[in-house]
Specification:
The structure is a single chain. Helix content is 45%, strand content 18%. The chain is globular. The model has no long low-confidence stretch (mean pLDDT 91). By secondary structure, the chain is an alpha+beta fold. It has 9 helices and 8 strands. It folds into 2 domains: 81 residues, Arc Repressor Mutant, subunit A, CATH 1.10.10; 173 residues, Beta-Lactamase. The strands form 2 sheets. Strands 5-4-3-8-7-6 form a 6-stranded antiparallel β-sheet, sandwiched between helices. A two-stranded antiparallel ribbon has the order 1-2. A hairpin with a 5-residue loop joins β3 and β4.
Length: 274
């Protein structure tokens, strides 16, 4: 059964940094690795300290350790770090061990071809500010979103993120709203919040939710969450297409129900264990 102290309930409670089992040094190490998610190929200790808010001396010790373990690679001539091969190995191991992606991919491909759109599978990152793409199937050569597995998309404005939020318990949903508000430009927040709240209502009514040009003015999308049997994990599927093809009515009457059926097939194949 394991120790109850080690149970991490991020579904309903989120990350608790005050938990007695939480190791701050490990969290700081991963915070450094996450600095490279924003596209910079190389960063110096000063760059990392500025992004993480950690003291430069702490950053220096952590980057040395991460380099020794292969998660960072140091260039003496540039005095900067890049991600190391050990980081790539972790991602490869994740994808190889993730049966849900293997099960979902042919179903996603079928839906992408039928709708001539992009069908994606994603999961929220640790701070619920972005959705991390686990797989992407493109169904139209003339409409190709420049997104691949591993890419991140916004949480509040995309159908993927809204589907994730819609499946959260109300208290967690409200907490994530507060976090998103802190990160959002003040003038944009009322519109973004309205879209997120409406998406939760749409999910309760239709079983799926929408993002109608909120993330990309040229894209209409529908999203649906998939909650594991033990309610420890939420994945989300979406279907995104050009506004000229993906009308709201088509999403409501055709694409949305097909996406729900796709989700249900994946859940049945995995028996909710993912």
């Amino acid at each position: 059964m394991g120790s109850p102290k080690r149970h991490v309930d991020t579904f309903s409670q989120g990350i608790d940094e005050k938990h007695p089992q939480f190791v701050s040094a490990v969290a700081r190490g991963f915070a450094i690795l996450r600095c490279f998610e924003h596209g910079a190929p190389r960063l110096g200790n000063q760059d990392i300290a500025r992004q993480t808010g950690l003291p430069k001396t702490t950053v220096s010790r952590l980057t040395f350790t991460l380099s020794a373990l292969g998660y960072l690679s140091y260039s003496a001539s540039l005095e900067k770090y890049a991600l190391g091969t050990a980081a790539l190995a972790l991602g490869h191991a994740f994808m190889r061990g993730n049966d849900v992606v293997k099960i979902a991919r042919p179903l996603m491909r079928e839906l992408a071809d039928y709708t001539r759109s992009a069908v994606m599978l994603a999961e929220a990152d640790s701070d619920h500010q972005r959705m991390v793409l686990l797989d992407v199937c493109q169904g139209d050569a003339t409409f190709h979103l420049n997104l691949d597995a591993g890419a991140r998309v916004p949480h509040g404005s995309t159908a993927l993120g809204r589907a994730d939020l819609a499946a959260r318990p109300l208290a967690v949903f409200q907490r994530h709203l507060a976090n998103l508000e802190r990160e959002c430009e003040p003038g944009y927040w009322p519109r973004l919040r309205a879209g997120i709240v409406r998406a939760r209502q749409d999910y309760e009514t239709h079983g799926f939710c929408f993002s109608l040009g909120d993330w990309n003015a040229e894209v209409f999308a529908v999203g649906v969450p998939m909650v594991s049997a033990d309610r420890s994990r939420i994945l989300a599927f979406n279907c995104s297409g050009q506004v000229s093809v993906m009308t709201r009515e088509k999403l409501l009457q055709d694409v949305g129900p097909r996406l729900v059926a796709l989700r249900d097939k994946v859940w049945q194949h995995t028996e909710g264990n993912f």
